[in-house]
Amino acid sequence: MKTNKTSVPTLSLTPGRRLLLAACVTVLFYVVTGLALQLMRGAFGADNIRMLRIAAVMQDMLLFVLPAVIVAVLLTRLPARFLAVDSRPRWRAVCLAALTMIVSIPAMNWVIEANASLPLPEGIAASLRQLEETAARTTEAMLGGTDIGSLVMNLLIVAVLAGFSEELFFRGMVQRLFVGCRWHAGVAVWVAAALFSAMHMQVFGFVPRLLLGAFFGYLLLWSGSLWLPIAMHVLNNTIYIISRHCTGAADINVLGTGDTALSYILVGASVALTAIGLVLTRRAAKTAPVVARRNGGA
């Protein structure tokens, strides 16, 4: 086993073989997940809320959690260290990252609006929008009603489980794998973020998810702990779920949108505060000592 300068412990496999192994494991679970979901739809129906929620849990476990854990176990004798889950960040870094995410909302809304109006050939744009509307209807059906039980279930599935599983896969496995293959750290962050955004298969939401994924990636890079991007991913999804529950609407946040002077002021202030927040978060994350690190596996 060897450890490079970025503390990603791996067995003595070439970078190409590590990536090939990860790709094979991922494709295998992708096929298994697809077959399992087809069987579930045939048994329970495609629009059954309970089935949709079970399918979401199954997808998170089979597509993201298990491949990441299996690849980490196969590649290293220290899988927890490989996935960066054997340490935790200081609360100061967590709080600053959360504040940065909150003040970035108007700027991100502007990016979302700009990406949604991306000019594409009419036929292609219509087809893509139809696909995204179908996916949105499925998501709305899974989120279900506005009662407290639905809120708790959505928080557990969409906020906590999805945030944990996607970060474990895209930052814990994919990004760390790229870094372990001696990619430049910044390149690893942005490629993993691009894959994260592409996984959602929404062209008109690609750019904001790319930026969000890069934010999560740099949090891991700065802190060395996957729990920081996990916490921010869960926070991001929690804000959406709670806001949707309180308003009962899909379009819940309009700060920074619209062609008004106030919107431009909000976006400008948001960009400035976000830049300051990133600098402070980076400083807090990089100077925070690593704690609760254990030698051994996950």
- Output the strand order for the largest sheet: 1-2
Shape: globular
| Termini separation | 17 Å
Sequence of secondary-structure elements: EEHHHHHHHHHHH
What structural category arises from helix and sheet content? mainly alpha
Say what oligomer this is: single chain
Mean pLDDT equals 85
User: DSSP strand (E) fraction?
Assistant: under 5%
The radius of gyration over CA amounts to: 20 Å
The number of helices is: 11
Q: Quick one: biggest sheet?
A: 2 strands, antiparallel
Helix content: over 70%
Which regions have little confidence, pLDDT < 50, spanning 5+ residues? 293-298
How many strand elements? 2
Structural summary, described in words:
This protein has a domain of 201 residues. It has eleven helices and two strands. Strands 1-2 form a two-stranded antiparallel sheet. A hairpin with a 5-residue loop joins strand 1 and strand 2. Helix 4 packs antiparallel against helix 11, helix 7 runs antiparallel to helix 10 and helix 9 packs antiparallel against helix 10. The longest helix is centred in the middle third of the chain and has 33 residues.
